[in-house]
C-alpha cells in the first residue's frame, strides 16, 4: 500500500471520528444543563425531558434511511449533509427563545446526527482492510468515551460561567472543522445512479411506532397500566410496527433490509446490540438519579463521579479493537457482556450514604468491559453482512442501538416510578425536588438498586445471543476470498 494511501485512511478516520465526539458531547452535556435550561426558558419538567427525547427519536428514525441513502447516493454526500444540518440546528438550539422552538430544533439536530453517524462506520469499513478494521473501530469508539468524559465536566463548568446556551455553542467549532475535513479527505464512493423512491411509509410507521412505545411506557404509571388510554396506545404501537414490517417486506427499496436478518451472525449480533444497549445506557441515568436525586450532589460533582464509567475506555477501546482483529470478536463480546453484568450487580447495592469506592470500582469494571466488548461487537455485526450493503447494515445496527438506548432510559424511569411518584422521580433526576424527606430519599435509593438489578436481565439475554457468534460463519456473508482480495489491494 502506498504511503499516501496509508496517510489518507488515517486522515479519513480522524475526520469521521470527530463526529462521534461532538454528537456524544452534545448528548451528555444537555442532560447536565437541563435544570438551568428549564429555568432559563421557563418550561416544565415534561417539556424539558422532551428536549432530550426528541433528539433520540429523530437520530434513531433517520438512521434507517441514512444507511439506505448512503448506498444509493454515496457516503460522503450524506455524511457532509448530516454534519451541515447538525451544525445549523445546534446554532438554532443555542438561540432558541421557547421550549417548543428548542424541541423543534432538537428534532432537526437529531436528524443531522443520524445522517452523519449512519455513514461514519461504512466510511471506516471501506477505508480499512479487514485485518485493521477492529483497530480503526476501536479508535473511533474512543471518541465516544472522550465525549462522555468531556460532556458532564465541561458542561457543569460552562453553565456556571456562561449559562445554558453555551452547551450548544461549544460544539459548533468542532462540527465545522469536521465538515471541512470531510470535504477534503473523503472520496466520492459511488457513481450517480437512477433515483429510487424513499420508503416514506416505512419511516412514518417506524417513527410513530417508536414514539408510541416510548410515550406508553413513560406515561403508563401516571395514566394507569390497565387504563384504556395506555392499552389503546400499546395496541396502536403494535399495529404500527406490524405495518412497518409488512411494508418493508413488499416495498422495492426498503429502508430496513430484512434480507440481512437471514445472516445468522448478523441477526444474532443485532440481538446482542439491542439487549446490550438497554442494559448499558441505563447506568448513567440511574447513577445520576442516585447522586443528584437521592444524595443531592451538584451536577459537576456528579459528573466527576461518572468519569470512571468512561475513562478506562480511552485505553481499552483501541486495545479491544486490536484484540478483536487478533483473536476474533465473538469471545471478546461474551467477556465484555459478562463483566458488564457483574458491574451492574455490584451497583445494585448502593446505600443512603455516599461510598466513593462502591460507585467507582464497578464503573471501572464496566468501562473496561465495554472497551473490550463494543468494538468487537461492532466488527462482529458489520463483518457478517455483505460488504456491498454496509450502509444498510450499519443503519440497522445503530438503529437497534438507539432504540435500545431509548428504551433503556424509559425503562429506568419506569423502574424508578415503582418506588416514588412520577413527578418526584423526574424532579429528583433534574435536581429540582428541593429538600428530600427521609422516606423519599430511601425510596430513591431503593429504586436505583432495583433498577440496576432489573437490567442484569438484559445482559443475560445479550450473553445468550452472543453464543451464536461462536459458531463458524457460513459462506456468502463476508467471504474469505473477499478479505484476501482487499488485503492484496
TrEMBL record:
The keyword Cell membrane applies. PROSITE patterns: MFS. The chain crosses the membrane at residues 12-34, 40-66, 78-97, 103-125, 137-161, 167-188, 200-217, 223-247, 268-291, 297-316, 328-348, 398-416, 451-470. It is a multi-pass membrane protein. CDD domains: MFS_MMR_MDR_like. The keyword Transmembrane applies. Its main location: membrane. InterPro entries: EmrB-like, MFS, MFS_dom, MFS_trans_sf. SUPFAM superfamilies: MFS general substrate transporter. Keywords: Cell membrane, Membrane, Transmembrane, Transmembrane helix, Transport. Signal peptide: none annotated. It is found in: Cell membrane. Pfam families: MFS_1. Residues 12-474 form the Major facilitator superfamily (MFS) profile domain. It comes from the Bacteria. PANTHER family: BLR6921 PROTEIN, MAJOR FACILITATOR SUPERFAMILY MULTIDRUG TRANSPORTER MFSC. This is EmrB/QacA subfamily drug resistance transporter. It comes from Alicyclobacillus tolerans.
Amino acid at each position: 500500500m502506498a504511503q499516501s494511501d496509508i496517510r489518507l485512511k488515517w486522515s479519513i478516520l480522524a475526520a469521521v471520528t470527530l463526529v462521534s465526539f461532538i454528537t456524544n458531547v452534545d448528548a451528555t452535556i444537555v442532560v447536565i444543563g437541563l435544570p438551568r435550561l428549564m429555568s432559563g426558558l421557563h418550561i416544565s419538567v415534561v417539556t424539558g425531558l422532551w428536549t432530550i427525547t426528541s433528539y433520540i427519536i429523530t437520530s434513531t428514525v433517520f438512521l434507517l434511511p441514512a444507511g439506505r441513502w448512503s448506498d444509493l447516493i454515496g457516503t460522503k454526500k450524506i455524511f457532509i449533509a448530516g454534519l451541515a444540518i447538525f451544525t445549523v440546528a445546534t446554532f438554532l438550539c443555542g438561540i432558541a427563545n421557547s421550549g417548543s422552538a428548542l424541541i423543534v430544533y432538537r428534532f432537526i439536530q437529531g436528524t443531522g446526527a443520524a445522517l452523519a453517524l449512519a455513514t461514519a462506520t461504512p466510511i471506516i469499513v471501506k477505508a480499512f482492510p479487514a485485518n485493521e478494521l477492529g483497530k480503526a473501530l476501536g479508535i473511533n469508539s474512543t471518541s465516544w468515551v472522550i465525549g462522555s468524559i468531556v460532556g458532564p465536566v465541561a458542561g457543569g463548568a460552562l453553565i456556571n460561567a456562561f449559562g445554558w446556551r453555551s452547551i450548544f455553542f461549544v460544539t459548533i467549532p468542532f462540527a465545522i472543522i469536521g465538515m471541512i475535513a470531510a470535504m477534503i479527505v473523503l472520496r466520492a464512493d459511488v457513481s450517480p445512479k437512477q433515483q429510487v423512491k424513499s420508503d416514506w411509509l416505512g419511516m412514518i410507521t417506524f417513527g410513530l411506532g417508536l414514539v408510541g412505545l416510548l410515550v406508553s411506557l413513560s406515561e403508563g404509571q401516571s395514566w394507569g397500566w390497565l387504563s384504556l388510554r395506555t392499552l389503546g396506545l400499546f395496541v396502536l404501537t403494535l399495529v404500527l410496527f406490524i405495518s412497518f414490517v409488512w411494508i418493508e417486506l413488499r416495498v422495492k427499496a426498503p429502508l430496513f433490509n430484512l434480507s440481512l436478518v437471514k445472516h445468522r451472525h448478523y441477526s444474532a449480533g443485532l440481538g446482542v446490540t439491542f439487549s446490550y444497549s438497554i442494559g448499558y445506557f441505563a447506568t448513567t441515568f440511574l447513577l445520576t438519579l442516585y447522586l443528584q436525586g437521592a444524595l443531592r450532589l451538584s451536577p459537576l460533582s456528579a459528573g466527576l463521579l461518572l468519569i470512571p464509567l468512561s475513562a478506562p475506555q480511552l485505553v481499552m477501546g483501541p486495545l479491544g479493537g486490536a484484540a478483536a482483529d487478533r483473536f476474533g470478536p465473538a469471545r471478546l463480546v461474551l467477556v465484555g457482556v459478562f463483566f458488564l453484568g457483574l458491574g451492574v450487580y455490584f451497583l445494585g447495592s448502593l446505600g443512603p450514604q455516599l461510598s466513593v469506592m462502591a460507585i467507582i470500582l464497578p464503573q471501572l469494571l464496566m468501562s473496561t468491559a465495554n472497551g473490550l466488548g463494543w468494538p468487537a461487537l461492532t466488527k462482529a455485526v458489520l463483518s457478517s453482512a455483505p460488504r456491498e450493503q454496509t450502509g444498510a447494515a450499519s443503519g440497522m445496527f445503530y438503529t437497534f442501538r438507539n432504540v435500545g438506548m431509548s428504551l433503556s432510559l424509559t425503562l429506568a424511569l419506569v423502574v424508578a416510578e415503582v418506588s416514588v411518584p412520577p413527578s418526584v422521580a423526574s424532579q429528583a433526576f433534574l435536581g429540582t425536588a428541593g429538600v428530600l424527606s427521609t422516606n423519599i430519599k430511601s425510596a430513591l435509593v431503593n429504586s436505583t438498586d432495583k433498577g440496576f438489578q432489573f437490567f442484569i436481565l438484559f445482559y443475560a439475554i445479550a450473553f445468550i445471543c452472543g453464543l451464536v457468534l461462536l459458531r463458524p460463519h457460513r459462506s456468502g456473508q463476508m467471504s474469505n476470498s473477499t478479505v484476501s482480495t482487499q488485503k492484496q489491494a
